[in-house]
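Weekly puzzle thread! Below is a chain. First person to post its structure in token form gets bragging rights.
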Amino acid sequence: MGSMKYQTIALELEKERSILSGFINARKKVTIVENAHNENTVNIGDTIVADLIFAEDDVEEITFKLVVDNGNLNVDPKLITINSPIGKSVLNKPIGEIVPCNTTTLDYQILIKSKKTLEETPTPGAR
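Winning reply:
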């Protein structure tokens, strides 16, 4: 009877060890990113003014706010997620830089002209 009790305890300990091992392995894969907020680079929450350069004589200026996708982006077409082609292209890039933007149907360049930081950008509906 005693050996059955020890086998049960050993199985429970092995389960716990397996769970802890999973947490440790997952933790090894996590990358901690320092606060990369820099006034000279594009960050989440910034409002960006940029030129989309399709050709030398085909340039379109856009203004957008760079956001994390919250699933409710249909409300404002001026929100660009960090997971979109434009968002991936400009995130953490310096103001003034021309960056490539590649999609499945179109390749073009983006000139990052200026930005307003999260603190400078008014919240919609705020007074």
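Puzzle host: Confirmed. Bonus trivia for everyone else. The chain has a mean pLDDT of 81.
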